[in-house]
């Protein structure tokens, strides 16, 4: 009878030792080299003709429909390529602070020509806190550029839930254009 507990302890110890050895063999993922000079300009998507109000409303309606399915009250903003507000919607019960945040996310995604998740990852995963000193940056998921025919026509920003909830709703909204 005493053999079984000892066998289990021995196996657990061996498994733990193997796990530690494997982990030591894998180099930790490091931050990107900030001194590297890329051949092409990253996120160099040209700006296009600004999104119309009608299309911006359709983008927001897609986000609202998805938010209603999930029971997530949120705020939504669509901006033109310069970050100027085109359409805004606030669902009943959405956080008041999220009004400005949704606009900020959309503005950042449009002006910097990239999803705001890029900034969140850079700060959270790599400690690139200097990004927070740049004008109009928000390092939080939920801002996605709207790209049509390879050109940015605006961006959508969603706020009111967690970053992952905001990003999911923005992805649905952007999907009406980013195909």
CATH architectural designation of the domain at 53-174? 2-Layer Sandwich
Let me know the average pLDDT: 89
What structural class results from the helix and strand content?
alpha+beta
The number of helical runs is 5
CATH homology superfamily of the domain at 53-174: Haem-degrading domain
CA gyration radius, whole angstroms: 22 Å
Could you explain how this protein is built, in words?
It is a single chain. The chain is of the alpha+beta class. The chain is 44% helix and 15% strand. The longest helix is centred in the first third of the chain and has 23 residues. The chain is globular. The protein starts with a helix and ends in a 5-residue tail after the last helix.
Secondary-structure topology with pairs:
Layout: H1 3-25, H2 53-70, E1 75-79, E2 85-90, H3 97-112, H4 117-126, E3 143-148, E4 151-159, H5 163-174
Antiparallel strand pairs: 1-2, 1-4, 3-4
Helix pairs in contact: 2-5
